[in-house]
Amino acid sequence: MIMGFKLLPEVFWGAGSLKQLADVLRNIKAEYVLVVTDQGIVKAGIADKVISVAKEVCSRTEIFDQIEPDPKDTTVAACAAKYKNDRPDAIVAVGGGSCMDFGKAVNVLLYNDGTIQDYKNQWDAIPNLTGTLVTIPTTAGTGSELTDFAVISDTSTQQKVNLIGKSVVATQAIVDPELTVGLPAGITAATGMDALTHAIESYACKTPNDLSDMLSLKAVSLIYNNLKTCVVDDPTNIEARSAVMMGSMLAGCSFANALLGLVHGIAHPLGAVWHVPHGVANAFGLPYVLEYEIPSEGERIINVGRAMGLTKEDLQPEDVITAIKELMKEIHIPMMSEYGVKEEDLDRLADLAMQEMGYICNPVQPSKEELVEILKKMYVRA
Fold first, then answer.
1. Where exactly does CATH 3.40.50.1970 map onto the chain?
2. Residue 349 backbone class (left: φ over 0; alpha: ψ -120 to 50; beta: rest)
3. 196 band by pLDDT with thresholds 50, 70 and 90
4. Which end of the chain, N or C, is less packed with Cβ atoms under 10 Å?
5. Mean pLDDT for the stretch of residues 155-171
6. Is 34 exposed, middle or buried (0-12, 13-18, 19+ CB in 10 A)?
């Protein structure tokens, strides 16, 4: 069987690797760099660190720091319009998944005519290759530093849409676990659950392959066995944070090749309509979608449990799901109702989820009635 596998950007990995940004910019002879980020990264002092390194090489640095969670197509368009006729030599996207996806989308619009809507949800529909884009994650969660996806909120439909393909992926990723130290516990927990969801969904999915399977299971092991340390036990433990960040990166590489499923199909409208943080939304759905998938994916769920380090001799899928629920409790994942989601919203949420790529790509597609039952369990955390 012939199998394709995308190997994505050049990666600089490890504590202190932020300093490699200077070499990246020097190698492309960059004189002018645009840093895109959000206000949280600015207030944390991380943007200043990045700009300081960039200034070692570049005579001009600009910053766009108005990225919102679940970045809007209108904000992407505004940033691209501002720099279209004053195009930087490189974009450096610093932050969580929202910032990195924003940087990817702006890079697409700087080098291509049209709007996000012209290219949404189409494989390799973007005609022109893009410029240098360096992604620098400050959370261990999305894997966006590696993927050829960018998720943007379409303000006209209140849906999340995808830009997909070789014109989206970054040219370099700098993955420095030191940038995650000091991250609030709630964000560490949410982004860690996002990464764990990527690892598990890309394994128990419709289109896995041998290489993605290996990456997924290694990612599960790294994330599950270190996330509680990062959130609760020892948040400054750089070894644990490095492990979770490596797990996040491996999971990103896996799902870029094997795709995801219904957990993300539910999470996207939760973010777009109810503004639930993406990692929290994934955590809401993960155990309950896995419960629904036991008849088709039971053996794979057991393999996930073995990767987690569960040692019960007669391990069952239900044991794995219970362990995931227990981790969620230990790291204090909130309830859906805390984000203003009401039980009467679940019917609408089901309709929206069934329009998502994650629903289509899931190993099994529940009926509307079955999906509402899954959502009811999520809501009360049964």
1. 10-179
2. alpha
3. very high
4. N
5. 93
6. buried
Angle between helices 238-258 and 210-224 (to 10 degrees): 150
Pair of tokens at residue 171 = 């040219």
Element (H, E) at 149: strand 149-154
Domain 10-179 sits in CATH at 3.40.50.1970
> What mean pLDDT do residues 318-340 have?
97
Q: Helix %, strand %, coil % for the chain, to 5? A: 55, 10, 35
Enter the pTM of the model.
0.93
Enumerate residues 6+ apart whose C-beta is below 8 A from 205.
258, 259, 260, 261, 361, 362, 363
What burial letters (b/e) apply to 153-189, b meaning 16+ CB within 10 Å?
Answer: bbeeeebbbbbbbebbbbbbbbbbbbbbeebeebbbb
CATH 1.20.1090.10 occupies which residues in the chain?
183-380
Residues with Cβ within 8 Å of 23's Cβ and at least 6 positions away in sequence, in order, are none
Cα dist from 211 to 8, 173, 214, 218, 253, whole Å: 14, 21, 5, 11, 10
Phi, psi of 163 (to 5 degrees): -95, 135
314 CB-contact burial (10 Å; exposed 0-12 / middle 13-18 / buried 19+): exposed
CA dist., res. 118 & res. 380, Å (int): 39
Asked if 276 and 138 touch (Cβ cutoff 8 Å), the reply is: no
Amino acid at 45: G
What's the full length of the chain, in residues?
382
- Report the distance separating Cα 43 and Cα 47, nearest Å: 8
- Give, in words, the CATH class of 183-380: mainly alpha
Which H or E run includes 173? strand 172-175
Which of 137, 324, 143 shows the shortest CA–CA distance to 250? 143
